[in-house]
Amino acid sequence: TSEQIEHLHRRFKQLSRDQLTIRKENFDSIPDLEFNPIRGKIVHAFFDKRNLRQESDGLADEINFEDFLTIMSYFRPIEMNMDEEQLDRFRKDKLKFLFHMYDSDHDGKITLQEYRNVVEELLSGNPHLEKESARSIADGAMMEAASICVGQMGPDQVYEGITFEDFLKMWQGIDIETKMHVRFLNMETIAHCY
Fold first, then answer.
1. Partners of 110 in the beta sheet?
2. Distance in angstroms (rounded) separating the CA atoms of residues 10 and 146
3. Nearest Cα to 118, choosing from 104, 106, 130, 97?
4. How many Cβ atoms are within 10 Å of 127's Cβ, its own excluded?
5. How confident is the model at residue 191, as a pLDDT?
6. Residue 21 CA from chain centroid, whole number
C-alpha cells in the first residue's frame, strides 16, 4: 500500500542517513540484526543481484530505494484476494530469496559445505553445542534432502547439492508465508528471517 511504501521510505532514509543509497555498513545500526546468528547472510541478501531481480550475478555495492522495495517485497504478507497462481508465484519468490541466502557461491546449488556453514551460524549462539554436533545436524539434514529429492541412492552415488527444484520439494507443505516476514512496528527493528 502507499502507506507501507511511505513507512519503508522513512526507514530507508533513516538507514541511509538521508543519502540516496544504502551500503552494507548502514545495516550496522539495526539493533535486532546485531544478535541474529545469520546477520551476515541477511545483509548479504539485500545486495545479492539475483534478489534485486537483475540478470547478473554478484553483489551490488549499494542499493537505492527501488532496490530496497524490491527486497522488502519478498517479506510482504500474503494478500487475501490472491488466486492460486499468484499464491504459487508469491511462495516461489520467497523461497528463491531464501535459496539465494544459502547458495553463497551463486552456482545454483546448496552444497553440503554451504549448508554446514548456515547450520553452524544458526547454532553458534548455543554454548552447549559443539561445532562437530552442528556439522552432524547439517550432514543429517543433507542426507534427508537427498532422500527426498533423489530417492534411494546407490553406494557410489554422491549428492551434488540442493537445486532450487529440490528446495521447492523440501519446503512443500511448509507454510513459508508465515515464517518469512519483517516487523516494522517501530523504527528500531528490521528483518527477522526464521
1. 162
2. 44
3. 104
4. 6
5. 45
6. 21
CA–CA gap between residue 177 and residue 90 (Å, rounded): 9
CA dist., res. 118 & res. 11, Å (int):
28
| Cross-strand pairs, 62 | 23
In 77-88, which positions are buried (b, 16+ CB within 10 angstroms) versus exposed (e)?
Answer: eeeeeeeeeeee
Q: How far is CA 54 from the centre of its chain?
A: 17
Q: How far apart are CA 61 and CA 58, in angstroms?
A: 10
Reading the chain (194 residues) residue by residue, the pLDDT tens digits are 889 899 999 999 999 999 999 999 998 888 878 888 888 888 999 999 999 987 778 899 999 999 999 999 888 877 788 888 988 888 899 999 999 999 989 999 998 889 888 888 888 777 787 878 888 888 888 888 777 777 766 666 667 788 999 889 888 877 776 666 555 434 444 444 44
Which one-letter amino acid corresponds to residue 128? H
Question: Measured between alpha carbons, how far apart are the two ends of the chain, in Å?
Answer: 25
Distance from C-alpha of 49 to C-alpha of 58, rounded to nearest angstrom: 6
Q: Which cell numbers hold the place of 79?
A: 494478500
Domains of the chain: 2-178 (1.10.238.10)
